[in-house]
Design brief:
mainly alpha, elongated
Length: 153
């Protein structure tokens, strides 16, 4: 029981620490107007990561340490992937802007070309990380039960 509480405390502490450090780093270096501005980092910081940090800490508290850490990692990996891929998609879409304007496309279509898909990509990365972490926790539980039954026998 003591080992279980230690694992819970460590995973919750690691998740909380990573979120606090990530928030401070994003707020200091990646907000709009800073030298290394990032749309996705700026958006997620202004919206407090949609409070996903609470989910990560609760997962640790309810004894899902791998899911907690995977969700935490997915959050910050998702910011990088979302910003990079979102900007790439936006750049490709905007490369057709002159041709579309010449063809007389409606302003609504032109506006849609400017959309940055970093946040949906970020959320998708978190969902994928959550599923991976959940599968790891299930395997850990399954192996723990097997070891416990071997010790009893």
């Amino acid at each position: 029981m003591k080992k279980k509480l230690v694992i819970i405390a460590i995973s919750a502490g690691i998740s909380a620490g990573i979120y606090i450090a990530g928030y401070l780093i994003c707020k200091s270096y990646f907000m709009w107007g800073s030298p290394m501005q990032s749309y996705t980092a700026d958006w997620t910081t202004r919206h407090y990561y949609l409070y996903i940090w609470i989910v990560s800490i609760l997962l640790a508290v309810f004894n899902y340490p791998a899911t907690s850490l995977a969700t935490t990692a997915g959050c910050f990996i998702g910011i990088v992937i979302g910003d990079t891929l979102g900007e790439f998609i936006r750049t490709i879409r905007l490369s057709n802007l002159d041709r579309l304007i010449a063809e007389g496309v409606s302003p609504g279509v032109i506006h849609e070309l400017h959309i940055h898909y970093g946040v949906p990509i970020w959320l998708g990365t978190i969902v994928i990380a959550y599923v991976i972490g959940l599968n790891i926790d299930k395997k850990i539980r399954k192996n723990s039960k097997k070891e416990a039954s071997k010790k009893e026998a």
